[in-house]
Amino acid sequence: MTLEPVHMKEISKIASEIEHSYTEKESQDIFEIFKRLSDLRKDDKIILKSVGKLFRSSADMRRVSLTEDEFEVTYSSDSGSTNPILFERGLFLDVCHAAMASTPTDLNLHRKRTIICTGFSSGKKTKLPENETWKTFDNGFGRSKVIQIDPSVLKIRAGRMVHDYSIYASESEHILWTQPDMDTSGFFIMDGPIYPKQLIYWMGTDSDKVLIRYDKNAKKILQNYIDIMDFHLENKMPVIGFVKNPAETQILNLLREKAKEEKIFMELPWATDTQMFKSFLKPENETGTGEMTEAAENKNRFKITHSNWFIQPNQFYDKEIKTNSPLVDETLRRKFDDENYLPVFFMVRVPLDGNKIIFKIESIYGLIKDDEMRRKITKKILYELSVGKIPQTLLKADSIAKISSNEKKEIKELFTKDPAEISYNEIRWGDSDEF
User: Are 411 and 404 in contact (CB under 8 A)?
Assistant: First the structure.
């Protein structure tokens, strides 16, 4: 049943009442709040620390788009997934397909593909044909592997973990496989965070229900990411993680906690860290309600604003690891001092289809601690976002790695002896990318 005019009228009334409840101007000076981000700690543990001075800056997209790209070649990686499939005998499977793209286009690089199928079954009757070596196909341009998560390490989150293993294993293995093909004077863009943060969180959490810190495949994935960073540190080749939908709340929660401890009245009206940064990066000629005069609208239509860089060493998907980060596990190989692997980021606010969107740009401290490298990475991102809504090479990687809804359906139908479980929602709404 669709909404009738009488329903829409009532919703309109509700919206109007909510709109009238907004104050005309933010009651708190956001810059006073932001000063606290220069060195934000919890129990002497750094949660957030500014790299250099705390600032915000802006750039005109029209002017930046006319500058020269300092990097002759740009690379991007991405992977497509079937999302976890649950079969009637209790087996979870997720098939992921990773690809690398470049600008200018390198067809041989684009043709290379890595396919990983990860499975988990709590029962002993279903055993996957796991193997330590790769199977090759497409005249050596493709390779595949099957991974089975040890049944003893998961009591909850089986579907989520199967998905995480597949995504992180396929992407990291494909990046390592194609690194020898990269021109190290180029620039590399990863889709999403710089590290497998979901996996890192559960590897560093003392839980008796998710014990993946003991699983060889989880440790191998983490080693892959350290090896990737070693390549970039050795070659001084920039690498960033482009996070399209940042949704953390760790900074905001800690600011509220600090205000309460210090008995300071501080209104923090946001729900996420992203909303807070969005307010901080709002151009000065916008009104407190986010509306602009016509002159300001014309000026800001082509304006990108961004923050300085921050170190964020203890943040993994909004969860704080109580023990040491698995990134500094002594059993993992690394070529540089621990501080070089610390995750860092800056936030950028971009006009997009009439809206203002926040992206989080991640990298590692070992690269951006150098002033010139930090400048180059920042300028490159501003350039990419000035000539396109999303970095062009990242869109290329997404288009060649994506597994379509029809392909997902065909993959499910390949398993005839153990049919996939079908829920009512799948019948009613069809396939959805919920992971």
Answer: no
Domain ranges, ordered by start, for the chain: 27-72+188-390, 74-182+401-421
The answer to whether 361 touches 346, Cβ cutoff 8 Å, is yes
Contact yes or no for 347/307 (Cβ under 8 A): yes
**171 exposed, middle or buried (CB, 10 Å; 0-12, 13-18, 19+)?**
buried
C-alpha span between 194 and 205 (Å, rounded): 20
d(CA 64, CA 169): 36
- Per residue in 101-126, pLDDT (tens digit) is 999 999 999 999 999 999 988 776 66
Nearest to 227 by CA among 302, 289, 172: 172
pLDDT-derived band at 187, boundaries 50, 70, 90: very high
Cβ neighbours of residue 194 closer than 8 Å, sequence gap 6 or more: 239, 240, 241, 343, 362, 363, 364
Alpha-carbon distance of 150 to 119, in angstroms, equals 9
Burial (Cβ within 10 Å: 0-12, 13-18, ≥19) of residue 174: buried
Contact by Cβ (8 Å): 162, 221: no
Mean pLDDT of 254-272: 83
The whole-angstrom separation of Cα 335 and Cα 404 is: 39
Burial 28-67 (b: 16+ CB within 10 A, else e): eeeeebbebbeebeeeeeebbbbbeebebeebebeebbee
Q: State both tokens at 414.
A: 């390949």
Residues whose CB falls within 8 Å of the CB of residue 278, separated by 6 or more in sequence, listed in order: 349, 356, 358
Please tell me the predicted confidence (pLDDT) of residue 317.
Answer: 47
C-alpha–C-alpha distance, residues 272 and 128, integer Å: 41
pTM across the whole model:
0.90
